[in-house]
What we know:
It contains 8 helices and 11 strands. It is of the alpha/beta class.
Amino acid sequence: MKVSLPEVNFSDWGDVRYLHLGTEWVQGSMKLDAPFDIELEYVQRMMAWLLFVDPASVAKRHAMQLGLGAASLTKFCRKTLRMRTTAIELNPQVVAACRGWFKLPADDAKLQIVVADAATEIRQPQWLGTVDALQVDLYDHEAAAPVLDSEDFYADCRGLLSEDGCMTVNLFGRSSSYERSLAKIVAVFGEEAVWAFKPTREGNTIVLAQREASRPKRPVLADRAQTIQTRWSLPAPKWLRVFKPVA
């Protein structure tokens, strides 16, 4: 069965470029004068997995994005963090748009864009246990609810993760229930392994789940947050005011 995919377009407002899938809903953004920075607050928070790993180990790790959006996370992980980076995107037009309008580099030894259905692709054996930072941001053109949001899907996500790997998920939408989505994630990962931010002003709530719960102490998190801000210019100290375990 042929899937009908939405048309991809972009708009510029001031010094920011926005990606759209045929509607006014924003699917991602880029600062025109800083194309490799992460511009949106909720997308910055998708990087909260950095709080749970030794900063010196980051460049040796593997990041995977489910849903390319405007490639903010993909570019940041590959260019700024120098990680091996894989993105899985269903719509080839989105990949073309990111390459043409959003400065997504060509594939190389450390960057791979896979055009595929994430639900199917993440079951492929070559990915299992290889991902240290899994970033899930899967929305349709109406941005109404996550496209993949079942316990089975989250179990497949957990199967991708390395022993100290983390998944971050953007939960947002008019018809979705944050509580229902969170309950599914907790059912798969266990309550001790799940953390959540307060919602952003726009209504995006980022949830983080560890493959194995580690519960670092507050001073460790504060120290890492400062390093993250100094080294990679992400507002990690601010995160700690609005980020805590769900249990």
